[in-house]
Write a structure and sequence with these properties.
With 278 residues, the chain is of the alpha/beta class. It has a single domain, classed as TIM Barrel. It is built from 11 helices and 8 strands. Helix 1 crosses helix 2. The chain binds NADP nicotinamide-adenine-dinucleotide phosphate.
Length: 278
């Protein structure tokens, strides 16, 4: 397994791209994305096509696999389409996790995964811990660098999980929107214990924020789009947004942010105040 990569500041999201997945992931990597988020969940993700795109860029475009940060997920039966479950639903939970992981390695055509995320907490903490022990085993076998958890909106649950596992989560991947107060408490705790917060619905879940006069003022002054303002502020704050664009111009505009100098505290704080604060 190659050494762990620095955590990418942006992740390209591959959900809902169906048969366009191969060409969009390839385009995203060629444009400059180096972090890719997918899942072993055929209902929403075409993981084999993500693998085809990775194979194409590594074989034909001189981009070594070791420079790509590949993140996939174990999705429990609750999150799967009953007609397209990628593992044996009658197997033990531990066996389901192992089968899913092996399917991901095969789909993605890689020998290790940079980040493996539990797509949602299980129904009980006990079952979540059962899954986590299997994930820890992959890490001990040098098949995974980082573990993460997604759709976890209960701080107390996250703290209990954190205390009871030996390989701590490196990521929390959550919906970033008003209904949860933009996870302010979770984000603040995550910072303390060195967990990176990955946001999804960053744009789609925040139409009012994107339309706010504060963002319009900054976008005008910086000669950029409200979407770029949102991403820039979050990235400068240490959040890792998932970006699911299908549009090459948006890819270029969003990646350009990574080259920009730091913005002023005044600009950062003004936008953060719209999304629950720091
Ligand atoms: N863990 C989970 O349960 C979970 C759930 C949902 C999503 N995710 C992950 O998050 C990824 C992103 O999904 P999301 O729902 O959060 O989507 P998103 O990236 O917030 O929204 C993408 C939408 O915003 C539009 N957009 C407008 N301007 C843009 C700009 N400058 N840059 C980028 N997009 C712009 C896009 O349109 P254009 O295509 O026209 O640019 C697209 O319709 C998914 O692919 C998936 O990997 C994870």
């Amino acid at each position: 397994m190659a050494n762990p990569l620095p955590i990418p500041r942006f992740l390209y999201g591959t959900a809902w791209k169906k048969d366009e997945t191969h060409s969009l992931v390839k385009t995203a990597i060629l444009q400059g994305f180096r972090g890719i988020d997918t899942a072993c969940q055929p209902k929403h993700y075409n993981e084999p096509q993500v693998g085809n795109a990775i194979a194409e860029v590594t074989q034909n475009h001189n981009i070594p696999r070791s420079e790509l940060f590949i993140q996939t997920k174990f999705t429990s039966l609750d999150g799967q389409d009953p007609l397209r479950i990628p593992y044996d639903k009658h197997a033990t939970l531990e066996e389901q996790v192992t089968q899913s992981f092996n399917v991901s390695l095969k789909n993605l055509k890689v020998s290790y995964i940079d980040s493996l995320v539990l797509h949602s907490p299980m129904r009980t903490l006990e079952d979540t811990l059962r899954v986590w022990r299997v994930l820890e085993g992959f890490k001990q076998q040098n098949k995974v660098h980082y573990l993460g958890i997604s759709n976890a909106y209960n701080l107390r649950f996250l703290q209990q999980l954190y205390q009871q596992v030996s390989v701590k989560p490196s990521f929390i991947q959550n919906r970033f929107y008003r209904e949860t107060g933009w996870d302010r408490d979770i984000r603040s705790w995550a910072k303390e214990v060195n967990i990176k917060y990955q946001s999804f619905w960053t744009l789609t879940g925040n139409p009012n924020v994107l339309a706010s006069p504060v963002i319009a003022r900054i976008a005008k002054a910086r000669e950029c789009s409200p979407e770029q303002v949102m991403y820039k502020v979050l990235i400068q704050t240490g959040i890792v947004p998932l970006n699911g664009t299908k549009n090459v111009t948006h890819m270029k505009e969003d990646l350009a942010i990574l080259q920009w100098e730091n913005w002023s505290d005044e600009e950062i704080d003004a936008v953060l105040a719209l999304v629950g604060g720091k």
